[in-house]
Design goal:
mainly alpha, single chain, 258 residues, globular
Length: 258
Amino acid sequence: MAVSEQRENLLSGVALTSSYSVSRQRLLKGMTYLSIILSGLALLMIFAYARPETIQGNAQKLFYVHLGAFFGAFVLFGAAVVAGIQYLRLRQNRWDILGYAAIEVGLIFSLVNIVTGAIWARPIWGTWWTWDPRLTTITIMWLTYAAYMMLRAGIEDPERRKRFAAVYAILAFTSVLLTVIIIRVRPDTIHPVAAGPSLASDSAEGEFDMAPRVVQTLLFSIFVSIFLAITLTWHRIRLENRAEQIEARKAALLTKEI
């Protein structure tokens, strides 16, 4: 193949991976603005709408962010499984990029989950950390996905890296499932429910019944976290496409010089 033909193929590949229609750009911009608005509303509900919980007081408000971050990470790690399966089936680069972006953003959300849990534990348990089964499994989950990033960085061959990453993303989801079910198979865990009776509840003393405002705020916070996670992942995908565009242009220029 002639050098000029190789250069044209590289540039055409760049155009295909980096092109975004006007409608998609507007959609992403709209999702970005909406994410900011929804996040503001969620904070307003947390601090002004939902009343303090009876036992935990204001410390319980951390659970709105804590649970939302976990569900955001859960959705993204699940998306990485789908992306891994699709890449192994179709060998299309976009699925590898989706899996990579989803896990990278998911790591941030799971880290927020761990940090907010530690901040909550300090006034409630009197310690920043304890090796409770739930805390142990979520740490294992985070380290498992952190190892995914190390795996990608340690393999130079692009095709081999993508195959290994796809398989790893599928297998790594077992750590997420373990984190979800651990409190159901290990009754000795001290990890609490997200909320108990609140000051707004009319339930009898000692009866577990989340007040409507608590439930509404919790569900809305989870929805906002998932929406924000999807929006950030889309931005990360665009950033990765831009990076590949730059690398392809560099390769094209080097081919031209040769």
